[in-house]
Each structure stands twice: as structure tokens, then as C-alpha cells.
Design brief:
globular, 2 domains, binds pyridoxal-5'-phosphate, 402 residues, 4-stranded mixed beta sheet, Aspartate Aminotransferase, domain 1, 7-stranded mixed beta sheet
Amino acid sequence: MSATERAIASAEAHSAHNYHPLPVVVATADGAWMTDVEGRRFLDMLAGYSALNFGHGNRRLIDAAKAQLERVTLTSRAFHHDRFADFCTQLAELCGMEMVLPMNTGAEAVETAVKTARKWGYRVKGVPPGQAKIVVAANNFHGRTTTIISFSTDAEARADFGPYTPGFEIVPYGDLTALQAACSANTVAVLLEPIQGEAGVLVPPAGYLAGVRELTRERNVLFIADEIQSGLGRTGRTFACEHEGVVPDMYVLGKALGGGVVPVSAVVSSSEVLGVHRPGEHGSTFGGNPLACAVALEVVTMLRTGEFQQRASELGDHLHHELGLLVGGGAVDAVRGRGLWAGVDIAPSRGTGRDISEKLMDRGVLVKDTHGSTIRIAPPLVISKEDLDWGLDQLRAVLAGE
Ligand SMILES: *Cc1c(COP(=O)(O)O)cnc(C)c1O
């Protein structure tokens, strides 16, 4: 048995089978590259679903974490600590907002957004008690808690996990008329991904986000943008909403906010909205801890220069140009995305997304399939153009059946 087979057999025996990983066992990583337990190197074209926008072992982020590890790592929110204010101030400023509520995982931040919107609905908008409604889109992915899967349309994510939380209405993504019809007097929020990641990197029709902004403003409904995967540089802008010049009422952030080092998530909004919370009503033992704040503050500092956004934009144009050439050649049915983020629909004749992912793995490239026939490409934004081109060469070879 190889070291890889031993590690996988042992993982399968002693961990729940809630994932189906590719059969590679990573031992170390640097930049856009990972090395497995047998010394093989792989180009990481997934980047931890965008948690690793700044690459593996990013020097600035590791240094920030190391320095903070030697100072203080956890206080709980029972006390103040000296990294908290800076983090909240700088993140709010990056977002053009006023207040931050830090949590840990993306799902927790979405839960926080849901609770905040409901409370705002009752206290500010004047919705009758218990009647608040939140409109969401079909094929959404917002996380895995019982409330969040209650408004998922993915049968796999929902089955056997009920009873489900009420108070959500689902409309087709990209359909403004349906959204308009769903917004009633008791609607407190519209919660959307500006680009649907897990659904296969679905970019909404031009004008949709701007239309959502206009409609929600007219109806006194909060526009919550879940930018957990689309935000923080991935699409070539700090936020995917920027591509339509839209500023939502609330950003939900996670993944890259923790720099691939620690889980950090946050809701960022106005003081009118986040100001509804009072002590004791919501919180998290680890949310906003010193280590998380130190790393996330460095992430925010890095994003302020715009260099990562610029890189994602330029390399993204190149990526989409190259992928576009594959469409219509028989192997690829469609390509979608923005910046360094693409969903590639593989023609069924060439195998499933999983088949293609495994063949790419054999050639030293790691991607992830989604919804059967799609592969998702989202390398760290620090990837070099040469490495990106090499990765694309491997994809072309696999699609050509080589
Ligand atoms: C990953 C993701 C989440 C959930 O984040 P977790 O940290 O896995 O809980 C929520 N929304 C979007 C858009 C995501 O991509």
C-alpha cells in the first residue's frame, strides 16, 4: 500500500463520508502549488473555493499570524483586545460601510445576516412579529446549517435534514419580475450571491444586480450580497457587485477574509442595520478573536492597494479568452465566470466533471467538479501566467483525450 492509499483508507475508516475528495493527500503547499505525501507537485486551480485567494503560505499573512501567535490569540468578546478596532474599522472602510459583526465560518455570517435582517425588519421597518420574509434565489449556496439548507433547492443538501425553517421564498436567479412579485410588505431582505459559485459560476444577466438594488431600495428591503466566494478580489474587483456599480445594504464575507490561515467571516453594513443588535442577543466565542483579526487585517491591507484585483482581472481576461476558444470544439459546451473564476461545462461525451478532474489530477492539476458535468477553475490570484498557461495546457490535453 502506498502512503496515499494508507492515508485515504484510514481517513475513510475514521471520518464521516460527507465529502468525496480526489485521491490526493497533500503534505505541504506554497503559492499556487501543493506537494503530496509522495513528493508529487500539483497546481492548485481551486484555491480552497477562494479561501486561498492570496496563495498558500503567503509570507505577509503567515508573518502576521506568527506575530499574533506570540502576543495573544483569544480573549473572547468578554474583553476588548488591541486588534479588534483596527480590523473592524479597516474592513468597514474597504466595504464603504460603517459597521462590522465578525464571526468565523461563512454559514455563521449568513445566519448573522438572516438574524440581523429579521431584527431590522421588526424594529426599523415595522414588520408584524414573526412575519418577516427573506427572498432568496433558486440554486443558491449559502452554507450548511439547518436554517440555510431550509432555503436550498439542492435535494442532496436538504433531504433528511428537516423540519425546515420557515420565512424564505425562492425565486429563479436572474429574474427581476419574479423577484418583484415575491417582495411583499413583510419582506425584510433579498439574499443573493452576485455570482452563483456552487451552482457552476453562474453570472446573472446584465442589469440584474442593478435592478435588484433599485427594487430593494424602492420597497425598503435590505439587499444582502453573499460575497463569501465572489468577493475579495476573485472577479477582478474587490466585490462582484462592483461590476454593475452596485452597493448592497449588507456584505456577507468569509473564505479569503481569513487568508487561508484561519476561519474569519463577517457581516458588514450600515449602523442603521447592524446597530439593531444589543449585548447578549447574538455572538460567538471565537468571532473577532485576536489571531483572526490580525490575519484578516493583513488581508484587508493587501486588498487596499488593488494589485490583487488587477491581477485577477488581467489573468482572468486571459483565462476566459483561452477557455472561450474551447467552446464549440466538441469538448466544452459552455464557459462562464468573471476574473480568475470559471465554470466549464464538459460535453457529456468527454466524461463527467469528476472524470475530467481525476484526469487533470493525473497530470498535476487540481480542480473540483460541481453538478455532474461542470468543473470549476479558481486558482489563487498569485498564480503566475506561465503556471496558468501550463494548467490550461493540461486541460486541453485531457479534453483531447491525451
Ligand atoms: C462557501 C460559501 C458559504 C459557506 O461558507 P462556510 O465557511 O463553508 O460555512 C456561503 N456562501 C457562499 C457563497 C459560499 O461560497
